[in-house]
Amino acid sequence: MYPNLYYVFKDLFGVEWNGLKLINSFGFFVAISFVVSAWVLTLELKRKQASGILTYTEKTIVVGGPASINELVLNFILGFVFGFKIIGAFLIPSALADPQAFILSSQGNWPLGIILGMVFTFLKWREKEKEKLAKPEKRIIRVWPQDRVGDIVIYAAIFGFAGAKIFNSLETWDDFVQDPIGSLISFSGLTFYGGLICATIALYYYSKKHKIPFIALCDAAAPALMLAYALGRIGCQVAGDGDWGILNSAYISNPEGKLVPATMEQFTSALQANQHYYSEQFSTFKIEHLSVHAFWGLPKWLFAYNYPHNVVNEGIHFANCTGNYCSFLPIGVFPTPLYEIIMCLILFFVLWVMRKKINTPGKLFAIYLILNGLERFLIEKIRVNTRYHFWGLQPTQAELISSALVIGGIILFIYSKKIKLKQYPAL
């Protein structure tokens, strides 16, 4: 596992650049997912604009004016954070020992933060002074939906992260009650559907404000959403953030942390030997498992993985390992993030091929909801998650939401024929 990019470069290139410890692997792939999905969304919006489905809005701007107070304050904040935290991390000896704790702490280099804040402020002021006119002018410009992709991504990131943390807190309520602040600001513990729901609500209001047909935006975003999810799951797999599946009793870890085939007796012995760990994790010693050996010549890591050096320090410790990230799982688990990467990449290409063949507004997004819901509902059958108990059922939060998405997708698919004239101009 690669908890942060320091370990990636150390393993692949043999270099030890301590500054890379500040870049969490999961966060890196989430950032990549936003960038790539923004590019895909831009392509789709341009296509819809070229076909006449989407059009521009007009906006009045003032050019040639001095730098505003808001611009100067924002640039000071950016410069301060860069100097105080990013550069400060290289100047404080203990910062890179635990980058996450440092980033969330009040530690930093105050003088450097203030100096860089002032430099950033001056650069923005000088930039505006060079463009300054004797008399500022008002101009009307055309703003196309593709021009708002940056704003859309920022809205999706902010409200998506907030929703992911809120829904995760609801799913892990006991942990949240014990440390609510730590739970909300930590980098781990994100629920995709919480992010999807909150980001969708935020973008609905954004699209209404800027007169973008919401259903058209949803259709354009459908392939990008599926791709973003697949790329984000790469971060889960690479970092080993705990989003794995149930135990695969066909494989156990040896003392060196290597996965080896196991009989049912050996699995039971390994379970008993690590009873303290599994009892703490599952609050019961009745642990769900399946026994599936590798077949068709496929590598065993497709069927079981023990996530050595995982970012959440789950499992038991390597004998001669010191510092952070020294744990591995004593029994192999199904690598569900890997399964979701494969499935969602396939589903992305399906949506990408279908997008030009579907002319009914809302139908492509409906298909996305159905495929996304089915994919997640199926993966939940072998995934570790908190289960609710009511009416004799034991669903997970993701199963409930994915079922709702499938039902909502079917309803939208049927209803989409009736919203064509309401949402789209005649072509």
General description of the model:
A hairpin with a 5-residue loop joins β3 (about 245-255) and β4. It is built from 16 helices and eight strands. About 55% of the residues lie in helices and about 10% in strands. Mean pLDDT is about 90; it is low at about 420-425. It is α+β, with helices and mostly antiparallel strands. The termini are far apart.
Distance between the termini: 52 Å
- Portion of residues within helices: 55-70%
How many H/I helical runs? Answer: 16
The sequence of SSEs as H and E is HHEHHHEHHHHHEEHHEEEEHHHH
Total beta-strand segments: 8
Uncertain segments are 421-427
Rg, Cα atoms, Å:
25 Å
Strand proportion: 5-15%
What can be said about the biggest beta sheet?
4 strands, mixed
Average pLDDT value? 88
* Coarse shape: globular
Structural class by sheet pairing and helices = alpha+beta
Secondary-structure blueprint of this entry?
Elements: H1 5-13, H2 25-50, E1 57-63, H3 69-91, H4 99-103, H5 110-130, E2 137-143, H6 149-171, H7 173-178, H8 180-185, H9 192-209, H10 214-239, E3 247-253, E4 259-261, H11 264-273, H12 275-282, E5 289-290, E6 316-317, E7 327-328, E8 331-333, H13 336-354, H14 363-379, H15 397-415, H16 420-423
Parallel strand pairs: 3-5
Antiparallel strand pairs: 1-2, 3-4, 3-8, 6-7
How would you describe this structure in keywords?
427 residues, alpha+beta, 4-stranded mixed beta sheet, two-stranded antiparallel ribbon, 16 helices, 56% helix, globular, disordered C terminus
